[in-house]
Amino acid sequence: MTRAEFLKMMGAGAAVLALDAVPGASLIQSANAQTTPLKKNQERLAFGLPDQEAKVDKPVTAIVIGAGSRGSVYASYSSEYSKALKIVGVADINSTRRDLMKNLYGIAPEHCFGDWKEVFNLPKFADAVIIATPDNLHYDPCMVALAAGYDVLLEKPIAQTEKECKNILKQAKKYGRIVGVCHVLRYSPYFRALKRVLDEGRVGDVLSIQHLEPIRFHHFAHSYVRGNWQSAKQTTPLILAKACHDLDIVRWLLNKPCKQVTAFGDLSFFKRQNEPAGAADRCEDCAVESQCPFSAQRIYVKQHRYLYVFDNLPKDRAAKDIKIKEYLRTTDYGRCVFRSENDQVDHYVCNMQFEDQVTASMSVEAMTSSGGRKTRIMGTKADIVGDMKTFTLTDFLTGKQYIWDEDISKLPGYEGHAGGDWGIMKDFVLAVANHDEKYLSSTIDVSVESHVMGFKAEIARKRNIVAKM
Q: Where in the chain is the domain with CATH 3.40.50.720?
């Protein structure tokens, strides 16, 4: 596989949008604005696009711990911006993924490791560590990396417990290191524009936010029934495994501390008592597979969704499908969604009260046909309605509407969290190179706070109480 093929497979690309609120950002005018005609009472918001390259004196060097999908996307920033970032080490127990990254970035054999602990048996040989391991392997490598003198880019969620999150915060302060948490939605053009409008006071004082995370039925079946996050006990609960992005966005937009949380939700559908007559342990043996929207045969073989979880797939379609079917016979990805080992809730409602009596409600839903976060913001001067592609601000006094609808489809990498994956890489590189966490949109302190909101929500849901922060 060539580097270009790899980047295409991972959905990673060169540039993403960011606004001029971050030190070092240089704006250029967007050439991708939508050309949809506006009505007389409408005006388009245009904030421009940035040069996405981190301008540094010498490349920041990094070790990738966890060479799967997320680690590969972050590392791929160095392919486009080699003067900003250089990947000099990799650790992964999966030799196929480890070797792929080794070959893509020319990593020295002595800096390729199986167990992450082996990285720290050597003297410090990079500026930073990118931790993109499974949820249960975030805490230990992060704590060790900070003690060893590395700055850290840490995939979300930070850790599996509130105590561990706070320990990482203390460790970062103790050793004076930078920890950038991968709340990548903050770096998407959509949310950065939304944040800018709020900070400019265009809606007045925000009174309330409604936020929906529609996961999509097939995505939920893939990741949270069959996949790596099927167990809240072994990873983290859905509110953190999936929606810590959303908790962070709400906290970031409001820029106020949360005071109390309540939540409701359950695993209602993906369990044994709901299986149809004729179901089997695996979809290939199921008598009603063709009538099931969650069929593994439908999702992976017919629709070719989420194939990044399968290593060494041939390019030829027929050969590829044969290989996929082999995986479905031997892994959880081929299991019936009603007979899996999952315990994640499939619908979740979280209500939050912030300082100054500001309220927010958030829903995380498995059963949706389409994705893309939906957000409504209610202020004293205007409201905003958005769907991660466009948002409309309506002024109460004049009735005038202000529309943000930048077209980012021509920007390489826009597929990665709507342009956020490489945006965070630019700011992390700048933060490390300048030894200044202010280049990041948030410090580790606020990231920990939004995680605590999630842990408190789980306490509230399980105990049927209002949990104080």
A: 3-37+47-185+422-443
